[in-house]
């Protein structure tokens, strides 16, 4: 298991525990890909992350086009 995968799983576990303690449904992680290259988004997507956020439409469109075969 890679360190990125371990970090993602740990974060998701922490979110799940916090939601459980608060009596809420499990939280969903929105990864912010601002300033990150498409390759970094692809690496995180390969670990199962599917929700990403961007600040600027132009950056989002460029990454969407670069990564459209991942869907």
Write the layout of secondary structure elements.
Blueprint: H1 3-21, E1 31-32, H2 38-45, E2 52-53, H3 57-67
Please give the oligomerization state of what you see: single chain
State mean pLDDT (0 to 100 scale): 92
Main β-sheet, spatial strand arrangement:
1-2
**Residue fraction in strands:** 5-15%
By DSSP (H or I, 4+ residues per run), the number of helices equals: 3
Which structural class best describes the helix and strand composition?
A: mainly alpha
Low-confidence stretches: none
The whole-angstrom Rg is 14 Å
Cα(first) to Cα(last) distance is 23 Å
Short description:
This protein has helices at 3-21, 38-45, 57-67; strands spanning 31-32, 52-53. With 71 residues, it is mainly alpha-helical.
Describe this structure in words.
The chain is mainly alpha-helical. Helices cover 54% and strands 6% of the residues. The protein contains three helices and two strands, in the order αβαβα. The protein has helices at residues 3-21, 38-45, 57-67; strands at residues 31-32, 52-53. It has a two-stranded parallel ribbon. The longest helix has 19 residues, at 3-21. The protein is globular, with a radius of gyration of 14 Å. The chain starts with a helix and ends with a helix. The mean pLDDT is 92.
